[in-house]
Amino acid sequence: EVGILAKSYIDQGRLIPDDIMTQLMLSELKGLDRYNWLLDGFPRTVAQAEALDKECQIDTVIDLDVPFETIKCRLTARWIHPASGRVYNLEFSPPKVQGIDDITGEPLVQRDDDKPETVTKRLQAYDAQTKPVLEYYRKKGLLKSFSGTETNKIWPHIYAFLQTKLPDVSQKDATTPR
């Protein structure tokens, strides 16, 4: 139920409300207190950050400072084959024939939340809500920012920084999502 509700916000180019997002995230974090973990895209508002701080000890916050135009180009270039979930990107992983799945020959589609107008709305909302979160963590001395437009150029700096926080994490562990 909550996933369907969340999807309705995403499809409209809106961010998921704080109470729904916080409930989802905090329930997922229960029981992970003995592990190191990394959240991607949460918290996005000060209310979410404050709720997270009440439940968890946050050691560091990483800000990936990537120009909106770069993000917009990457997202709007993404197309999928709905039946299989295969993802293509017109810039760096295009299908052999534009608009057609390589394996089945069926048409590719663009998700509603990857359409240019939806991406623009989401980025504007994200910017308005996230700047205060960055300031919140900056004031706490927890924020570390990395700027760039290419993952392979930003990642080595992030990895080196994470090694100072988690020196026992291997390169293999750092590339394996959990």
Automatic annotation (TrEMBL):
CDD domains: ADK (cd01428). SUPFAM superfamilies: Microbial and mitochondrial ADK, insert 'zinc finger' domain, P-loop containing nucleoside triphosphate hydrolases. Residues 78-113 form the Adenylate kinase active site lid domain. The keyword GTP-binding does not apply. One of its GO terms (molecular function) is AMP kinase activity. Signal peptide: none annotated. The keyword Mitochondrion does not apply. Keywords: Kinase, Nucleotide-binding, Transferase. It catalyses: GTP + AMP = GDP + ADP. Coiled coil: none annotated. It holds the Pfam family ADK. Belongs to the adenylate kinase family. PANTHER family: NUCLEOTIDE KINASE. This is Adenylate kinase 3. It comes from Rissa tridactyla.
